[in-house]
Amino acid sequence: MDRLSRGIMDTRFASWCFACIFSVLASYRAQAQVALEVGTDIGLWRVTVAAEKTTFLGQYGTYVEPAVARAWNVFWRGPPSHGGGVPPSGGGSSGGSGGGSAGRPSKPRPDFWHILLPSGKLPRDLQLGFTGVPGGYASLMYEPDVLRLWAGLKPRISVEIMYDMNAVNGNAPTGFGILTDPTRGYASASITAFGPDIALPVWGWETGSGSYALYAGHGWMKDWTYTYGAVQSVFLQLSTKTYVHRTIQTYSLTGEWRPPRGTSSLLDIPNIARFSGVDFLLQGYGTEHMWTIGATAAAIWRL
């Protein structure tokens, strides 16, 4: 390729990158489910922006994880797990004549939830409402042309960023735990994460209705999480905040459908972009106390 042709290709690629970045910024507020891709001499590039919703609970996962673990054990017919992480004592009181407190487990410091609600039971007249916001997902993906694997499909290297928040508010007219007067509360958990992901094809097939592909991926992300809780009554106000920043592992499963080759679609944009299929993404994030599941989907257009 001569210098002029290479310069034209570089200019087109730079223009495509600028258009993709602009479309991501312009459509983020609308939570558009859009993926734009372009083929180059070195491979396929794709920018995706979509809405994503997760099951993220933040520090509140400490209260949910034991129940999930018990349900998992029951599902797999496993032994029930002991609560509190302390095995039952069987005749361990005769451990020696020195100090009586040497072999005695220390009592854990009570957390915000158990201070507020000593019985662990919610009031019967508690009214709850979900107030979480739609999450967002964006990625830059690259498929190299030099390597083909299962069913002629290529591996994928992506850089991803995601955000989500789940929140609930509540009202207890007759009180909540230690608060005996009408009480209102709010709890939220938000997460922002950024990092790379490598996905390999595990299945690919083609029928008269189009081509299908399945990818499995693994990656790492830097995440920033914020968990907040507050309750307010006439006589008392309590609140708690928790920040966590660390590196987490991610696992992904991607399903993709592309229409038959050479066919046109009503979704084609004449002289601009051709509709090229739909991408479905399911991800697992290894967050603080339990795994978080996130899902998103996007329609693909090829420039």
UniProtKB/TrEMBL annotation:
This is Transporter. Residues 1-32 form the signal peptide. It comes from the Bacteria. The keyword Signal applies. It comes from Roseiarcus fermentans. Residues 83-102 have a biased composition (Gly residues). Residues 83-106 are annotated as: Disordered. Keywords: Signal.
